[in-house]
Specification:
Elements: H1 4-17, H2 27-46, E1 50-51, E2 61-68, E3 72-81, E4 86-87, E5 97-100
Antiparallel strand pairs: 1-5, 2-3, 2-5, 3-4
């Protein structure tokens, strides 16, 4: 789900890339840019989680996902331990999906 603030920030950033001021843009055109950003961001979010079979096994930190019926969804950061061939923080966990860690926040 893309929040209203995220969508607005994405549309403004995209328009700024085009070299113009968001505040000078006609409201209809703003709506058009928001729609473009919403479609792009929704497509990105829909594909953010990848099958666990494609997770890096080089010790890189990643976010893992596991759904347990009746208990809910679990997301945690973990590293693959190549020597023991298991996840370090949840060695008995059986995650189904993974995604790279996001970058650090911008100042």
């Amino acid at each position: 789900m893309i929040g209203r603030e995220q969508l607005e920030a994405a549309a403004e950033a995209y328009y700024a890339y085009c070299g113009a001021a968001w505040d000078d843009l006609d409201p209809k055109a703003r709506a058009h840019y928001r729609t473009r950003m919403q479609l792009g961001l929704e497509a990105f979010v829909a594909n953010i989680w990848r099958p666990i079979s494609s997770a890096p096994r080089d010790g890189s930190a990643v976010l893992l996902f596991l759904h347990i019926e009746g208990r809910g969804d679990y997301i945690w950061m973990d590293l693959w331990d190549a020597q023991d061939r298991r996840w370090r923080l949840a060695p008995h966990g059986r995650p189904t999906h993974w995604t790279p860690l996001p970058g650090p926040p911008q100042p």
